[in-house]
Amino acid sequence: TEFSKSSRFLAILGKLLLLNHEHPLRTKKTRNYDREEDADFSDSCSSLQGEHEWWWDFLVQIRENMLVATANISGQLDLSRFDEPISRPILDGLLHWAVCPSAHGQDPFPTLGPNAALSPQRLALEALCKLCVTDANVDLVIATPPFSRLEKLCSVLTRHLCKNEDQVLREFSVNLLHYLAAADSSMARTVALQSPCVSYLVAFIEQAEQSALGVANQHGINFLRDNPDSMGTSLDMLRRAAGTLLHLAKHPDNRPLFMQQEQRLLGLVMSHILDQQVALIISRVLYHLTSSATAADVSPPSAGTNGSSSSSSSSSSSSSSSSATTTTNATNNGTAPAAINGQVTAEEFATPSTPSSGAPANDGAESSGGNRAEYIFSKMKEQQETVDDDKIRQSKQYYYSGAEHGVLICG
């Protein structure tokens, strides 16, 4: 805590993070494969060229100590309290080591041995995760130029999501993507443009669901409730992954990227073993996707001349009255209104069934929880003809019951 409040210590830390570490611009050269002994490495990372200096070994050790210290104090550090000459070198150094392509940045520290997992990149990602717990630090990270480095960071985090052998890096990536996507709409678009990112986030939740199902089958449901981390990750991490998908789905340009994953998202919502709050967040993702598609289907035509507009208005009013009559009759008869040309009608989408007080109302566009639930469950029934009616009814019951912590077993 004391180090995180010391401006002098932070000023020294910022200067030492990137001391004598540069990436000069590379020039295109004609390669001569017959004379490898004459290869010129002058345009490579400067961290590979300082072995002849007496201070080089000490600098490597000091840099390791500074990165470890930064990772330890980042949870207590609020960089918005300090001036730019102090805060910017720290953020610049951490962002550089997080995306540094050199072996010096990605390989383990030379003092730890070849089998160690601790590297400058790993420590930088850990420090950034702890820094982003504070909203002001997230804003400073996004505001640190250049923006192209943030795009590289999103690309690096997306690649880490598929590394099943390193769960720590995967969780670092989920955390950082969640903070970045929630902070700014442009960052949400940047994250989604890393093409496998949406698929990898869905796969992260699916893998945890399969692990939880295996634990429940082997040890029982009570064991899974008492030990939710036995599925390989924490419930909070699953909720952050689902929250990241929700922030990405709210951007209108990202919604076409989700259409390929719609069946997988529906399967997660219908899961018997998935955490209730995670399934609720995913259902909100589906709501954003289906609401945009339905709004496009029922958008009114553009008005033409006065005569045509008056005639169209009269015809539309008559059609609306007839549709309202049809809807009323269908409601009185206990049947749902029919779809037009295989699409959902405006009445079917805009009229909720029995809304529940436990349904979430976090977003203004999602005020009708029953509407969203009925639409999603009708889509499930259309696209999955083999789904049991009891399963649909049980899923509706959990949806209207509201968000609760713990493991949900619908069956």
UniProtKB/TrEMBL annotation:
One GO BP annotation of this record: chromatin remodeling
Keywords assigned: Nucleus
Segments for region (Disordered): 294-375
Sequence ranges assigned to domain SWI/SNF-like complex subunit BAF250 C-terminal in this UniProt record: 1-238
Biased composition (Low complexity): 299-339
A GO cellular component annotation in the UniProt record: brahma complex
InterPro entries, A to Z: ARM-like, ARM-type_fold, BAF250/Osa, BAF250_C
Residue stretches in coiled coil: none
Compartment(s) of residence: Nucleus
Pfam families: BAF250_C
PANTHER family in UniProt: BRG-1 ASSOCIATED FACTOR 250 BAF250, TRITHORAX GROUP PROTEIN OSA
Protein name: SWI/SNF-like complex subunit BAF250 C-terminal domain-containing protein
Species this protein is from: Anopheles maculatus
